Amino acid sequence: xxxxxxxxFFGGHSFGGDAAYxxxxxxxxxxxxxxxxxxxxxxxxxxxxxxxxxxxxxxxPGLHLHPLESAYGILSPLATQVTGLPLFKSRVLRDGLDSxxxxxxxxxxxxxxxxxxxxxxGTNRRAVRIMTAHEHWLICSMxxxxxxxxxPCDGPSCIRCNLVGKRPPQAWRYTGAIGRGLRHxxxxxxxxxxxxxxxxxxxxxxxxxxxxLPYFLPDDWALGIEDExxxxxxxxxxAAAGRLVAMKGFQRLIPMMRYLPEADLRIAGTxxxxxxxxxxxxGLPNVFFEGLLGGASLARLFRGARAVVVPSLFPETFGxxxxxxxxxxxxxxxxxxxxxxxxxxxxxxxxxxxxSDGELLLALRRMIHDEELRAELAARGFAQRIGEWSETxxxxxxxxxxxxxxxxxxxxxxxxxxxxxxAVAEPRPTLAGVRRPQD
Length: 439
Known about the structure:
By secondary structure, this protein is α/β, with parallel strands linked by helices. Helices cover 33% and strands 15% of the residues. Strands 3-2-1-4-5-8-9 form a 7-stranded parallel β-sheet, with helices on both faces. A 6-stranded parallel β-sheet has the order 12-11-10-13-14-15, sandwiched between helices. The chain has a two-stranded antiparallel ribbon with strand order 6-7. Strand 10 (237-241), helix 8 (250-253) and strand 11 form a beta-alpha-beta unit. Helix 11 packs across helix 14. The two termini are 25 Å apart.
């Protein structure tokens, strides 16, 4: 089958997060012999990257990259931000979305690559059209339900929030453009039930089915590091990772280390809040900043930790760090008011939750000193990772969803020879005539 992915950030021009999922999905599809095309906006990355480094990225065989760069540079994503339309990117996007042999069009973070206007672009109406809401962009012009850059959103005051956040206005949000765009989709996917219900509560879902499909990690993501024994003799440590911004909550975690002199805190990541966090950690000899880590380095950091702490203050839609921690057999400590973190980090069975600083300190102490508890949580988390959150389970559900929509339409895919010479597997059909699958 031929897939077309449309997203704002991807590959080297990305910050992780939603781009990490898109990359993992693309690689999983290519490993199964499918053809995947990704359209993403280089201009958008350049507009917001600051001093974020450009990542090295080599596409896997079968993955075709279409980086969108306009002669207008950063004015292109700015125009999309203000109008909700693809504008300067329309021609190239239309060429891809018009292609009659495309079987699936999957939209992801469309905020700066085309806005809601991109959802109806293209003349190929035989292709299944789905979208994954990786953030809260559909219901929040600031994407994250993080109000005034200091607290979780407790109610709409979007114009003032935009002004405080120094974002260009988005008058199109008051025209019904998002609802009209969503009606072009067969389904709208969410990585957590919390994110799905938050969107439903705020009015999304009248014209499109809402689907829960959790994230996954590739089967070999940990590179066998999950089977390695942590280095003996070293000081016990807690790990944390993410973009160093206020909403990630590291400023709540760092002061706790004053009361845990027997352990270290090792933080992986970079970001605009780094100088503030380093100043906060001054005088704490047990707090270390590891810089930007990925792949084996991140997996090894997590593997050796007593726990991975996810102190997010804003509502996460999943929390990939939780899954990455589970993948190497390490439990988590999560802020239960961080959106989906209670669902992924606590209800999954693989971690402890907290709501106050006192509860956080207690949870950290238990992870450091209670070996039996830590081992039990780690085992539960790993079971979740190799079960519902595995690549096999995710891709099975993904094709089941696609097959359901194709069957309802009476459309069959265009088959192509597998690169290895075998036939591409047909999507597994499910119940006929399904109109609105439930979450």
